[in-house]
Amino acid sequence: MNIPNRITLSRIFLIPIFILLLSVPFDWGEIPIGERVLPISHLVAGVLFIIASATDWIDGYYARKFNLVTNLGKFLDPLADKLLVSAALILLVEMGFAPAWIVILIISRELAVTGLRLVAAGEGIVLAASQAGKLKTWTQIIAVSVLLLHNFPFSYIGFPFGSIMLYIALIITIYSGVDYFVKNWHVMRDSK
């Protein structure tokens, strides 16, 4: 197994630790941030999420630069991204930081596009990520990161940056999903 695939697998293995940090009420103390407090376990989970998200860029860059792109990597990389972001979004709903309907729409788009990619793969077609899809990923990561950190550093000025970014991520997620299906509808139409 090459280094990019190991990096991707490490991202998948970080997900249960991330979930544990947000699901178990660890009493490690709190940090005051404006009118709110940030539990240290949430800070650690947020930093872990940011590190795991950064590995997505690192493994892709490394795989392309050294010509180490593999079918396993093509399978694992988007899977790791979807598992990490979906877990974070679901936990944000449980924490009361994200509306469930937004999370349902975002995860539904991810499943629909994954289904389209599977149909395309069955036809021997590889569907590359679009620029809108990449922008979708980054807006989701930014929104989730800020919300996991209880809107830090914007909590000091009372600006709901995390919530605004979540709505922006939703809009771009829907747009990129529609764009993906419009551009690749021939795959569904022509599948056997």
TrEMBL record:
Reaction(s) the record says it catalyses: a CDP-1,2-diacyl-sn-glycerol + sn-glycerol 3-phosphate = a 1,2-diacyl-sn-glycero-3-phospho-(1'-sn-glycero-3'-phosphate) + CMP + H(+)
Transmembrane segments: 12-28, 40-62, 83-105, 164-182
GO CC aspect terms: plasma membrane
Membrane topology per record: Multi-pass membrane protein
Enzyme Commission code: 2.7.8.5
InterPro entries hit by this protein: CDP-alcohol_PTase-I (IPR050324), CDP-OH_P_trans (IPR000462), CDP-OH_PTrfase_TM_dom (IPR043130), CDP_ALCOHOL_P_TRANSF_CS (IPR048254), Phosphatidylglycerol_P_synth (IPR004570)
Annotated keywords: Cell membrane, Lipid biosynthesis, Lipid metabolism, Membrane, Phospholipid biosynthesis, Phospholipid metabolism, Transferase, Transmembrane, Transmembrane helix
PROSITE patterns attached to this UniProt entry: CDP_ALCOHOL_P_TRANSF (PS00379)
Top class in the EC scheme: transferase
Top-level taxon: Bacteria
Pathway per the UniProt entry: Lipid metabolism; Phospholipid metabolism; phosphatidylglycerol biosynthesis; phosphatidylglycerol from CDP-diacylglycerol: step 1/2
GO MF annotations in UniProt: CDP-diacylglycerol-glycerol-3-phosphate 3-phosphatidyltransferase activity
Annotated compartments: Cell membrane
NCBIfam families found in the cross-reference section: pgsA
Record protein name field: CDP-diacylglycerol--glycerol-3-phosphate 3-phosphatidyltransferase
The encoding gene: pgsA
